[in-house]
Protein: Nicotianamine synthase
Organism: Medicago truncatula
Amino acid sequence: MGCQEELLIAKVINLYEQISSLETLKPCKNVDMLFTELVLTCMPPSPIDVTKLPNTVQGKRSHLIRLCGEAEGYLERHYSAILGSYQNPLNHLHIFPYYSNYIKLGHLEFSILSQHCTHVPNKIAFIGSGPLPLTSIVLAWNHLPSTTFHNYDIDPLANSSAKHLVSSDPDLSNRMVFHTNDILDVSNDLKDYEIVYLAALVGMDKEEKNRIIDHLGKHMAPGALLMLRSAHGARAFLYPVVEASDLRGFEVLSVFHPADEVINSIVISRKYPMPKHSHDHSLCSMILPNKCSEIQVFNPLRGLNHGNMIEELTIDDQLM
C-alpha cells in the first residue's frame, strides 16, 4: 500500500471517529461540515481496494457506511419536510444541495439504460425510494414521460412524505405509485417490471445486499434489467460495493465509474434466462426517446466531459 493510500485511510478513520462520536446525525453545521469533508476526501479517483484492508479498518468502514446511510436519511427527511411546506414542492427541488447530482446521475443511468433496452418501459420499480424520490422524479420528468414508477420503501412515513411532494403535479401524481413493503416480502409483483432500480443503501452490508439481489433474481421477469448502484475506490468508504460475482442469475452488461461529484458507480445487468421468443435479447421493441423525443440510439458519452465524468465504462467480458 502506497503512502497516499495510507494517508487517505488515516484521514477517513479520523473523520469516522469524529462522526461516530456525534450526538446526532441530523442536519446541522457540524454534521454537514464533517460529511462534506468525508465526501471530498473519498471523491478523487483512487486505486485503493477496500476488500484488502485490515479487519479493523473493514469494521470501521462497515460502520461508517451505516452512519452515512443514517445521515442521508435524516437529510432527505429534512428537505422533504421543507419542500412539502411549499404549495408546489416540485418547483423548489433545487434547494436540495445534491439535486444537480441527481440530474447528472439520472442522465447517466438513462444513457446506459438506453444502450441495453430499446423499448419505452411501461413500469419501473425503484426499491428504496425514501422521502425524497429524486431518481424517480428526474427520470419521469426528463427521460421517461410516459412510464409509471412504482416506488418501494419499508418506511410508511417516507412514502407519505414522498407522495405529498408529487401530489400537486397532475402528471407525476398519476405516474408515481408508492408501496410500503420490505422488498423481501414482494414476489409476484416483481414480474411486472421491465426495469428494477436498487438504491445504494438498500442492503448496507454484503450479506444483506446479496440476499436482496438473490430475491430479485428469483422473482424478476426473465430478461428484465436490474440497475444498481455501487462504489469504486475510496468511494467504497461511503457506499456498499456490488461485485459482478454478487449478481447470481444476472448477466452483467456494463459497469460505469464516474469520476466527478456523482459518487455512485452504476451496474446494469439482465436477468437470465432469456425468453426463447426474443430475437434481440431484450424485452424491447422500440428505441428509447431522449428528452426531445427524437427516435435515436442514445450515446451515453455524447455531451459529457470525458476528462472528468468518465473514469471507466466496461463490459464484463467474462460474463458475456
The CA atoms of residues 16 and 64 lie 6 Å apart. The two ends are 32 Å apart (CA to CA). The chain has two domains: 3-94, 99-319. The chain has a mean pLDDT of 86.
